[in-house]
Amino acid sequence: MARENAFPLIVIPLLFGVIVSLFPSVASITGVCYGMIGDNLPSKSDVVHQYQSYGILAMRIYKPDGDTFNALKGTDIDVMVGVPNEELALYANDASAAASWVQNNILAYDGVSFKYIAVGNEVSGDDANNILPAMSKIWDAICSAGRQDRIMVSTAVRFDVLNNTYPPSNSVFSAPFMGPIVQFLNNMGNPLLANIYPYFAYVGNQGDIPLDYALFTATGTVVSDGQFQYQNLFSAMVDSVYSALEKAGGNNVPVVVSETGWPSYGGVGATVQNAQTYNQNLIRFLNYGTPRVPAYMEGYIFAMFNENQKPGDEVERNFGLFNPNQSPVYPIYFN
Fold first, then answer.
1. In this structure, are residues 44 and 65 in contact, taking their beta carbons and an 8 Å threshold?
2. Rounded distance, CA 151 to CA 86, Å?
3. Taking Cα atoms as reference points, which of 62, 66, 18 lies closest to residue 44?
4. Strand-pair category, 255-260 with 192-195
5. How high is the pLDDT of residue 7?
6. From which domain of life does this come (predicted)?
7. Residue 254, preceding bond cis, omega within 30 degrees?
8. Fewer CB within 10 A of the terminal residue: the chain, N end or C end?
9. How far apart are CA 72 and CA 167, in angstroms?
10. Whole-number Å distance between alpha carbons of 152 and 114
11. How far from chain centre, in Å, is Cα 327?
12. In whole angstroms, what is the distance from residue 189 CA to residue 152 CA?
């Protein structure tokens, strides 16, 4: 459970109006996804400076971007970079192309703290068969460069690769391509990247999912699952992934939450107050882990900015913590 008042909040105003919260030293890592689907976003250097000013420790981007990498050089910001879905078939079938991708987008940027390579994001259909061979060839290139101790290779999956997620201990992978991927990750000691959205689960099942359960604000147990008691939907969803991993032989595969968030406008439950409540409680919750895995977690909030050119429903353009002019949509405190 997120403990809303677990730590006293000390707020110190700094230059440029930035506010930083001071909590006891913790081991969890909160990153933010930096989406770029907008025509009014700040410069890459200004974005990196904003990450540093707010104490955001990690950044996820969805494809290589040289200007962003150059701005990140010499910073302590960990980077998760994506291999675009449309390129997976190439790297799945051509080891030299995979090696060139690693050379041009990783090795060429000395001074950037690359941590994860996400080979595909929410890949589905026949394209999913390209995930594992592309991962394997990119991993081979990372190992050939001697970076296997610093950079991990995985893929980011949607929650619907699972079935029977209620209660979490019943969860299994429904997507047949997941079994070999889990075995690969288990053998390599790399994590599974999972996009976890209690918001969409709540919107799709308001009759059974209380809002406070989705926002980390429930005051007691909402779901009992044997020895595990759940007071928030996020931990139940993450433990569903862990339960499926265990059944698939992935006992050594940790879960990194590669996306999660709550929109501030444009749909059911999409308010500034709810978005602030969810994301602030998430940051605190990551220090505690889940009932099944009660240890610090790594998570990435989606997203840094509201992106005015994102396709889809209005909520898709309103997940940002910040407006394109870099002003906060609501106050948020990191680490």
1. yes
2. 22
3. 66
4. parallel
5. 25
6. Eukaryota
7. no
8. C
9. 42
10. 9
11. 22
12. 9
Q: Mean pLDDT for each consecutive 10-residue tract of the chain (335 residues)?
A: 28 29 48 98 98 97 98 97 98 98 98 98 97 98 98 98 98 97 97 98 97 98 98 98 98 97 98 98 96 96 98 98 98 90
Which tens digits make up the pLDDT trace of 24-71?
Answer: 333 468 999 999 999 999 999 999 999 999 999 999 999 999 999 999
Tell me, rounded to whole angstroms, the distance of Cα 235 from its chain centroid.
14
What is the residue type of 332?
Answer: I
Beta strand pairing call for 10-13 and 228-230:
unpaired
- The three-state (H, E, C) secondary structure of the chain, written as one string: CCCCCCCCCEEEECHHHCEEEECCCCCCEEEEECCCCCCCCCCHHHHHHHHHHCCCCEEEECCCCHHHHHHHCCCCCEEEEEECHHHHHHHHHCHHHHHHHHHHHHHCCCCCEEEEEEEEECCCHHHHHHHHHHHHHHHHHHHHCCCCCCCEEEEEECHHHEECCCCHHHCEECCCCHHHHHHHHHHHCCCEEEECCHHHHHHHCCCCCCHHHHCCCCCCCCEEECCEEECCHHHHHHHHHHHHHHHCCCCCCCEEEEEECCCCCCCCCCCHHHHHHHHHHHHHHCCCCCCCCCCCCEEEEECCECCCCCCCCHHHHCCCCECCCCCECCCCCCC
Q: Which two tokens stand for residue 162?
A: 């699972």
Total residues found in the chain within this entry: 335
The dihedral built from the CA positions of residue 107, 57, 148 and 123, taken in this order, carries a sign that is negative
User: Could you tell me if 107 and 98 are in contact, meaning their C-beta atoms sit under 8 angstroms apart?
Assistant: no
pLDDT at position 321: 98
pLDDT at 23: 29
Cα-based angle 88, 91, 93 (whole degrees, multiple of 5): 110
- Angle, helices 131-144 vs 178-188, to 10°: value is 20
